[in-house]
Every structure is written in C-alpha cells, then in structure tokens.
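Q: I have 281 residues here and want to know how they pack in 3D. Can you give me a structure?
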Amino acid sequence: MKYSKYHALGNDYLVIDPDDWEGALTDAQIRRVCHRNFGIGSDGILFGPLPKAGSDFALRIYNPDGSEAEKSGNGLRIFSRYLFDRHLVGEQPFSIHTLGGRVQAQVLSGGRQVRVEMGRVSFWSDEIPVTGARREVLLEQIEAGGRVFTFCGASVGNPHCVVPLPEISAELARQYGPLLETHPSFPRRINVQFLKIVDRQNIRIEIWERGAGYTMASGSSSSAAAAVAHKLGQCDSSITVHMPGGRLAIRIGDDFSILMTGPVTRIGEGVLHREMFETAG
C-alpha cells in the first residue's frame, strides 16, 4: 500500500491513491496511519484521485481523528503537486471536486508553488453553520473556558471561527481552540483562528483545526481569516497571512471569492505494511 508525503508550510499530508489501497479507509486505519508514533505521522490523508463527473479529479480529505473534512487549502495545494509529480497535470488550470465544492487549481514554478481558487467566503450563519436565527456572524460574543471572546464566523466550504485579538500565541490556540471547536454554537464543530491585524496588507494567525488540533499552517484558515479582516474594513483585498509555518498570499474578490497562492514541498514516498494495522483501534 503506497503513499506519498508532502508538506505545505509544515502542514503535512499523506496522499494515497485508491488504486493502491485495498478497500475503503476505516476510521481506525486513518488514526493509525496519521499517528506520529504508531504510524507514518501526518496532519491528514488525501485520498485520490477519484472520478467525479464535471471535474477533472475528485478528492476526499481525512483528519487524523478519522473524521472527514470538506475542504483544505493546504491539502488541495499538496494534492495538485502530487498530480503534477505523477504527470497527470501540467501547468495549466484544472478542477478538483471536494465535499466543500469544486475548486480550480494551477501548479506554478515547476511544482514549488500552487494557486487555488478556494471559492466564495460566506458569513451567513446557516451556511457555516452557527446556531440561532439566520444572520451574518460578525463580531459576536462567545464564552469558552471562563473567557469571553468576540468572533466572526465564515465558511470557505468548511466552517471557521475567527477571533480577532490584539495579541495571539500558540499557547492561546492550544488552550482555547479545543473549547471553541466543540462549542454548542457550532453543530458540526469548527476550525478556529486567532487573528492579529498587523497592517492593511498583513495579518498573523494561530490555528486550531477541527479534527487535527494545533496546526502550523492552513490554507482554508488563511482564506477565512483574511476574508474576515477585509470584511471588517481593517485590511485591503491583497493580504499576506503569516503563520508559524510560513506565509500564504490571499487575494479577495469583490464577491469575497478567494485566490490562494503558496508553496508545497515534496518529502518522499513509501509503502505501508499491513502489520501496522494489526492492533489498530
């Protein structure tokens, strides 16, 4: 059972071709493969390419806890690079179907950079989703761990809770991220970004990902946080997002459509041995 491993600003994924896997991926297998001690170790699994009418390729994205993600910006860039490395695409745009919608991708600079049209950001509560009456979720209050935060909700095909603050840290994300992820206001759980506005072209974020935990970088989180900063009038339409793992370039359209550009690094390939799964559970 073969795999390929890549990272995008320290956010690492395994790509597994369904043709190289015997049957469906189970939750237990996903947890074991992604485990840093008992498996290969990764922030998730990209399962594809799969067939899908109306798109060039389709992709399923699994979190390390076995749950399935609708969309991942870093995952999409990595999957695009994998397709390029297998000579399934060149440097012309192509489409990828995800549970969070269809995206357009383009590999640049011989695979070192990938641009993805992430789709349109929505701030509407029923599309994120956030409980309560239908509304745009902007600058609302939420309590977690005895602290009250002001947050904005956003969907990029997957759900996000963006918390603007004057100062942010990894410790803050690790402490409050899991509490916000599972807050009753978010019926499908949620990705959390703690956001600091640097200036009109730059923001910093710390990230707690649904189903994955503290993360060094995230493409969809960058898209959501940049869109919120622009929606609040604190940033322009071209924003550099700074994360512990590095930087992504985000361009926001008039309709809040997102164009994301960033690097991908190839790590290597290998073979999974079935012995690894004998005690998976």
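Q: Anything worth noting?
A: The first helix runs from residue 27 to 34. The mean pLDDT is 96.
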